[in-house]
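#struct-queue
[09:14] JT: dropping the first one here, sequence first, then the structure tokens:
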Amino acid sequence: MDLYFSPLACSLATRIALYEAGVEANYLEVDPKTKVVQKDGSDFRAVNPLGLVPTLRTDDETVLTENAAILQYVADRFPNAGISAASGAERSRLHQWLCFIGTELHKALFVPLLDKTAPQDAKTYALSKNLSRLDYLENYLKGREFLLDHFSVADAYLVTIINWTMATPPIELAKWPNVKAYYERLRARPSIAKAVAEEFELYKAELARHKAAA
């Protein structure tokens, strides 16, 4: 399977899930500005017209988009990895967390803060309206190791999003000690440590590439 990704973007969650599952995949880096696939110089929009990562091409050539859908696909495709959830209430809880992370944190809070073209009013509004989501997470994580009763793709997604606080100074994790402890604990997990380290090096190379082209 092929995973189209950009360094340290939300696609990092799928890399983590694949590492947890211990499966091989082709990792195809997409420049977030030019939408060029670095391996062959092709236009990524020929694969996903929206130009968004992650995008996954499965072994049967099916193209999947949207982070939550791809994470659930990986979890179900490799059940022995134990990163999915059983049927019934537990699976619904997994869906709940994937939706919460994707809408309340990823899109509502972090996207405006990370968007260099967003006006300051938009960033201020995002902070004033959505920091309460971190308060909710802080209360939920008290006494918990993971979002479910075991590590799942929801944790892979959440740690990916929390990692963005490195680039969003208005969000200081020290204000949410349970979230901070959760993040630091999961960053030490082998699959996550490996994925973050690899993509950080690619991110630095991406920055250098853009600087040279400017």
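[09:21] JT: and here's the second one, same format:
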Amino acid sequence: MSSLPRPALAVIGGSGFYDFFDNDATHVEVDTPYGAPSAPVAVGEVDGRAVAFLPRHGKQHEFAPHTLPYQANMWALRSLGVRRIFAPCAVGSLRADWGPGTVAVPDQLVDRTSGRPQTFFDGGGVHVSFADPYCNELRTAAVKSAGHDLRMEDSGTMVVVQGPRFSTRAESRWFAGQGWDLVNMTGHPEAVLARELEMCYAAVALVTDLDAGLGEGDGVHAVNVFAEFKKNLGPFKELMRRAVAAVDSEDTCERCLVHAGVSLPFELP
């Protein structure tokens, strides 16, 4: 462990995104106060940089969105030295013009989950700034890494639902009517837990389907979602590698250092 290079950057892979490195990687078992993370953390190299990779749902997709060990995942990455996280994920589109295969880098988030532990601070009067939930520096790196193989949208609001079921048509129409663009099941509390641990975080969303309210059809089916994600997985991984290479600094940006002047009830890992 002592000889392991510090992976200051991390990628958290979503549904269908279970590995990242073409070359050899070291798999690290990490214990946390919140139990084990979704899987051992792989540490490898991208463009000469040490990078950590964690499959969000586990290596075999063991975890459903509402059962994910979100706190353990974020704590494990921080304890290995991670300070900046790209979080690729599968999403449904609430816009007819953002069809399957579109990649969006959202700038806003709406939480519609329930019952998930969503903070490390159950006491001590700690309240983090979350008006802008995603790191602008990481978002910029992801957007400028777009190639011609995937359509890129440089903003958007992602609503996170509880899952594991998909939305009803009425819910989908309601979300779209609010002006929201994407629907997802894992983006919260992941983003706010990263912020509480002062790690920069940006979601990079691959559209796999048009949500139920956008057409008559049969609605959204998991088999089709996974098939669409698999079809675009190669270009999507390349986008993430270019994004990692495009990050200028490996340290937390100033805007994501949210505890300045605050006494915390415990020391961050």
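[09:30] RK: nice, looked through the second one.
[09:31] RK: The mean pLDDT is 92.
[09:31] JT: good to know. The two ends are 16 Å apart (CA to CA).
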